[in-house]
Amino acid sequence: MKSWLLLLTFVTALSAADAPVVIQNATILTVTNGTVKGSIVLRDGRIAAVGEKVAVPAGAVIVDGAGKYVMPGIIDCHSHIMAEAINEGSVSVSSMVGISDVLNPEDIAIYRALAGGVTTSNILHGSANSIGGKTIVMKMRWGRNAEEMKFAGALPGIKFALGENPKRAGSAAAGGALRYPATRMGVEDVIREAFTEAKIYQADWAAYKAKSSRGEVAIPPARDLKLEPLVEVLDGQRLVHAHCYRQDEILMLLHVADEFGFKIRTLQHVLEGYKVAKEIAAHGAGASTFADWWAYKMEAQDAIPYNAAVLVRKGVLTSLNSDDPELTRHLDKEAAKTMKYGGLSETEALSLITINPAKQLMIDKRVGSLEVGKDADVLLYDGHPLSNLSKVVKVWIDGHSYFDRDRDLAEREAKQNQKKALTHVGQTL
Amino acid sequence: MRNRFRLVLPLVGLALAAGGSADAAGPGIFALTDVRVVRVSGAVIEHGTVVIRDGLIEAVGDKATLPPGTWTIDCKGLTVYPGLVDALSTWGLVNNPAPLAVPGGGRGGRGGGLPTPAPVITTVSGPSTPARGPEDRPFNTSFVKAADQLYPTDNNIEAARNGGFTTAVTFPAGNIFNGQGSAIDLAGDRIGQMVVADAVGQRILLRTSGSRSYPASLMGTIAYIRQIYLDAEHYRLARSIYEKHPQGLQRPAYDRTLEGVLASPRVLLPAVRAVEMERMISLAEELKLNAVIYGGQEAWRETELLSKVKMPVLVSLRFPEKPRDMDPADEESLRLLELREKAPGTAAALAKAGIRFAFYSDGLSNPRDLRKAVKKAIDSGLSPDDALRAMTLSPAEIYGLSDKIGSIDKGKIANLVVADGDLFADSTKIRYIFVDGTMFEPPNGVTTQ
Questions:
Q1: Sign of CA dihedral A91, A97, A98, A104
Q2: How many CB atoms lie within 10 A of CB B226?
Q3: Are the beta carbons of A243 and A268 closer than 8 angstroms?
Q4: Which end of chain B, C or N, has fewer beta carbons within 10 A?
Q5: Rounded distance, CA B207 to CA B220, Å?
């Protein structure tokens, strides 16, 4: 009697969450623990087991992985999808704005990214400003609302931008009133001034707290939403992602950060990073770059496709990103290019889009590799992910199936019929 | 003063109303007899009497004793309703150009964005030099009140009144912080006489500068709103500390934009799409605002959240329509098509979920169009009782005016509309309108069609 009741409660609990999933007989690319020919179990949103042989939980959905490959969900460290505004370009320091205020969970780009294997995206403010707005890490939980898509526990971030974009955005060519800065010198000054103000703000609050703890009457400083994120940067509570290209501005930023006592978490694009890889490694910044985009503006002239490989060999934590809703759909193919240009191994190439960006975003305890206990963000491919001929077949996030190629194809006709039925509604006669 | 004047000249009676050609007449005491009374606040009285005196409802019931000098109107076959209320209006404002599209409609999806509320732009206080941040207070006239900007001679007032509207809650538009709306009764010589409540809430619009001035993006606008409310709280705190101990303290600067925000009993936040509603509700919760959503076309998707936070919704009667000159080769998204189909049913969904809502004109100036839209909502599942309530007692409740207007109850303001049938039926004619107890007859018997 007792065991029957226990089974009933166990089964009831299961039906509330997703049923466990077991992918059998696949080639499993764990990224951190080598390749396993066997099975992987997803249960309660986590990876429950990986191995040649696994115990299959009751009620599990069995997925036949024969001839197929499994890898961790791809993490795109630089994305602008699902945002209804990208740049607050009116001012050079827009740290008071945040992407989290303008998220659009209904952006079809999310679904397309999923179909390309992306399970987590770092959604950034644009590069119009020396100091841009606040950024946010999102999981591609298509169908959920914005709040439910947030990567719970990920540290908040902020975007900086150096070089042509911020100085051009304020120029006469861009139209409208001129906006300082117009040169790279000015970009440096804007950052220095902003952090100097932030330090003063920090000191004002400390002084107020000291005064009121002494029992003195004092009016607290007004909260300044522009300076507070910069104080968080100084306190190491907010990660800096800095768009940059040229070696001189990269060195400048690292110097400024050292001077003010904070770290640059990632340099984004960093196409001349190979020239200053030693300095980047010494500072401890990560690099998030393109495989082979180059020469689309002057500061991208000296880009080389070996950039990622050189940075990796010099000990810089390196990732590849998309900065684009189209490129995000084939980051796997981008990763493969680093094997040809630079001779990275398969695992090193896959790391550029999985465990490395996870570490850059400090979410590596949760995602980035197929290890027991991590989030069940898992991809099933019909061939090796790094092959040009393979594609994503299924995507799970937290053990829930968010993309299934067969399901997508099966639903197309029904959706077309639905559309046809609605097309004539609302026409004024 | 006004009523005594009218008692002395009971038979002259014609064209005494403010402006226009509508007939307004008679003594200060009216009785509508043998009339079907749809009170909204209680059961319908099939054959009742409503007595109006000195602009107020003096009695409602099956019978009533009529004082001497009462102008009795035999309303056999007629029905009296509370006068209709436009819950977010532009009537009474001076300039009424064609409604402009408001930016911030979203980047999601191609082939036609979802519609945004289209307020009438009146005064735009754009800065002459670009604003450098929230501290420059761009697009902020939070301290103005619609009551201070109104004109009784606006043609919309008479047209609306002939269509059965007796009250409009008129709000300024054009900025981010627009100022407070005022509830006005739609008849009078002077605005002061028409104002029922001068400051019923702050209207926020999510516009951007459209130029190099802050804010140039939706993110910037939302960050600005957040900063203003933080500044307002600090302002309140700083002033109270300073008033108690001014010596040794820097005096807080005077800021009329913060005074305006602090004086507002509630705030109206725009949201048409479900995503926008979630966004605005999240902002209201964060800033602890007493908020009302306006727009509301996709509210049928958010009934759970709206009832959880108990936020009222002002539902636009401008239902989304397919653009006339659309390229037939363009494909519209399933979401957009679904919105067009379901938007008229939003009110029914809100009623079913027990969420308080009211209808508003959203720039539609012809009362006929408004009643047609309400009829469409009824055809999409809204009960006629709920439809009427959404244009009478519900807006009164949302704005805290339900002790004054919105239903036919003794003591309330005599804002009534008498028609020869169901107010939202196609063939019904309006016979009389009472605004603050002054009687009007629409010219040539205005029908709903």
A1: negative
A2: 20
A3: yes
A4: N
A5: 10
Smallest Cβ distance to A104: which of B106, B131, B227? Answer: B106
Half-sphere exposure of A243 (CA within 13 A, CB side): 28
pLDDT in tens, A117-151: 999 999 999 999 999 999 999 999 999 999 999 99
Q: Could you count the other beta carbons within 10 Å of the beta carbon of residue B391?
A: 29
Per-residue pLDDT of chain B (449 residues; tens, 9 = 90+): 444 333 333 433 333 333 333 444 456 799 999 999 999 999 999 999 999 999 999 999 998 888 888 999 999 999 999 999 999 999 998 654 434 434 333 333 333 344 444 444 444 455 568 899 999 999 999 999 999 998 888 888 999 999 999 999 999 999 999 999 999 999 988 889 999 999 999 999 999 998 889 999 999 999 999 999 999 999 999 999 999 999 988 899 999 999 999 999 999 999 999 999 999 999 999 999 999 999 999 999 999 999 999 999 999 999 998 888 888 788 888 888 899 999 999 999 999 999 999 999 998 888 889 989 999 999 999 999 999 999 999 999 999 999 999 999 999 999 999 999 999 888 899 999 999 999 999 987 555 43
Structure tokens at B155: 């043609």
Whole-angstrom CA distances from B178 to B121, B143, B146, B312, B365 are 10, 8, 9, 20, 21
Cα angle A125-A127-A129, degrees, rounded to a multiple of 5: 95
Question: Is the CB of B337 less than 8 angstroms away from the CB of A94?
Answer: no
Give B419 to chain A, closest Cα distance, Å: 28
Q: How far apart are CA B73 and CA B67, in angstroms?
A: 14
Report CB contact under 8 Å: A177, B237.
no
Across A178-329, the runs of DSSP E, i.e. the strands, are 239-244, 266-269, 286-289, 318-320
pTM of the model: 0.90
Report yes or no: A228 and A204 within 8 Å, Cβ to Cβ. Answer: no
What is the distance of C-alpha B38 from the center of its chain?
21
Residue partners of B18: CB distance under 8 A and separation at least 6:
B152, B153, B187, B188, B189
Question: Which of B179, B380, B378, B379 minimizes the C-alpha distance to B389?
Answer: B378
> Which residues 180-219 in chain A show a CB within 8 A of chain B?
217-219
Residues of chain A found within 8 Å of residue B237, distances taken between Cβ atoms: 219-220
Are A89 and B212 inside 8 Å of each other by CB?
Answer: yes
Buried b (16+ CB within 10 A) or exposed e, A173-199: eeebeebebeebebbbbbbeebbebbb
Cβ-Cβ contacts under 8 Å, A217 against chain B: 241, 244-245, 248-249
Residue A412 near chain B (CB below 8 Å): no
Interface with B, mutate which of A81, A87, A91 (most B CBs under 10 A): A91
Strand-pair partners of A161: A243
Do residues B391 and B84 touch, judged by C-beta distance below 8 A? yes
Q: Which residues 264-283 of chain A have a CB within 8 Å of chain B?
A: none
On chain A, the residues whose CB falls within 8 A of the CB of B250 are: 219
Strands A157-161 and A131-139: antiparallel
Distance between CA atoms of residues A80 and A428, nearest Å? 37
Query: Cβ of A417 under 8 Å from any chain B Cβ?
Result: no
B309 touching chain A per CB within 8 A: no
Contact A97 B108 (CB under 8 A): no
Contact A90 B278 (CB under 8 A): no
- Helices then strands, each counted (H, E), chain B: 12, 19
Q: How many CB atoms within 10 Å of residue B158?
A: 23
Among A253, A252, A209, which residue's Cα sits nearest to residue A233?
A: A253
**How many residues in total does chain B contain?**
449
Closest CA to B264 of B234, B221, B228, B239: B228
